[in-house]
Amino acid sequence: MANILVIRFSALGDIAMTVPVISEMARQYPEHNITMLSRGFVAPLFNGLAPNISFRGVDLKADKYKGIGGIYRLYKELKTDKYDYIIDLHDVLRTKILRTFFRLNGAKVSSIDKERAKRNRYIKTKDKSHRLSTSFEKYTLAFNRAGFTFNNGFISIFGNSTPNLSEIESFTSNLKGNRWIGIAPFTTHRGKEYPTALTEQVVKAISSLPDVSVLLFGAGKREKEILESWENKYENVYSVAGKLDMKKELILMSRLKVMVSMDSANMHLASLVATPVISIWGATHPGCGFMGWNQSEGNAIQLDLPCRPCSVFGKKECIYKDYRCLDRIRPEVISDKIKKFL
């Protein structure tokens, strides 16, 4: 039996993409104990995933963990569990320092290869004829390098069972119709976000369909205000923002006919509960390897423009200042795609 520490911090979407890999690793190596080290709020993604998976949340922004001294303090807290393997799925300066402390103490260390040079070439040449390795493949290779090989048959964080709606009955009892459509219109960067005014047209069109409830996902004050304004404006539209915790949102997502999402965390969360996703892509591109688990590029909505992709993560400002890669996607294209799932 081995104790394995898996490390991944950063954004929610990146952490969510570790779930199919860690789940299958745990299922196929039940004799080993796996501890996931990440940001505390993502614990619902791992709690109950497998009996040999435990979760440890850490706030790296806390003063006690800042600088090399803080990382060493974290190492001392962790080393009491005597980890045999360290799998670094983040590979940034802090995790490199942390894994080095473990290596010096005799642990076997493996890390992800982010293939940064390949990604940069992909963006610069805009060669869409091939696809880079997915994040799931990169994560799996990190385990392979440590000596763990496995096939990935992950389906859902709920396994083959259907989650009980009783946990979210206080929310679902208000819904009308039996065809639930999720829309998650926000993301961190403008280069990945479909214009709010155009999204509203999609919400309006879909909400008028028979037996349909449109469920709006978001977080934060600005997003909550926008979603609630649509809820008040249109029939059969319901904002989820601030009403359910992550576990309950995942249960709700598992019952959707389809989720409409940007290249963002909600695409990955819906993927983890086996819900099909219509994904909308602007500055970024599915070929960079960030498509949701088991999602089809045939359900990705994107324009074939000579300027895209221009960014791996969507941070780069549009050279034309108009974000035409998103603004020129007609709302009817999205609405028609949704109707196919009904």
What is the first-to-last residue Cα distance? 48 Å
- The helix content, as a percent range, equals 25-40%
| CATH C-level of the largest domain | Alpha Beta
Residues in β-strands, percent:
5-15%
Shape: globular
Residue-averaged pLDDT: 96
What does this structure look like?
By secondary structure, this protein is of the alpha/beta class. It folds into 2 domains: 3-145, Rossmann fold; 171-340, Glycogen Phosphorylase B (Rossmann fold, 3-Layer(aba) Sandwich). The chain has helices spanning 12-16, 19-28, 67-79, 93-104, 116-125, 135-145, 169-172, 196-207, 221-233, 246-253, 265-271, 324-327, 331-340, and strands at residues 3-7, 33-38, 53-57, 85-88, 108-111, 179-184, 212-216, 237-239, 258-262, 277-280, 300-301. The longest helix is centred in the first third of the chain and has 13 residues, at 67-79. The N and C termini lie far apart (48 Å).
Topology:
Blueprint (H helix, E strand, L loop, with lengths): L2 E5 L4 H5 L2 H10 L4 E6 L14 E5 L9 H13 L5 E4 L4 H12 L3 E4 L4 H10 L9 H11 L23 H4 L6 E6 L11 H12 L4 E5 L4 H13 L3 E3 L6 H8 L4 E5 L2 H7 L5 E4 L19 E2 L22 H4 L3 H10 L2
Parallel strand pairs: 1-2, 1-4, 2-3, 4-5, 6-7, 6-9, 7-8, 9-10, 10-11
Features:
Rossmann fold; 342 residues; 13 helices
Question: Short description, anyone?
Answer:
With 342 residues, the chain is of the alpha/beta class. It has helices at 12-16, 19-28, 67-79, 93-104, 116-125, 135-145, 169-172, 196-207, 221-233, 246-253, 265-271, 324-327, 331-340, and strands spanning 3-7, 33-38, 53-57, 85-88, 108-111, 179-184, 212-216, 237-239, 258-262, 277-280, 300-301. 35% of the residues lie in helices and 14% in strands.
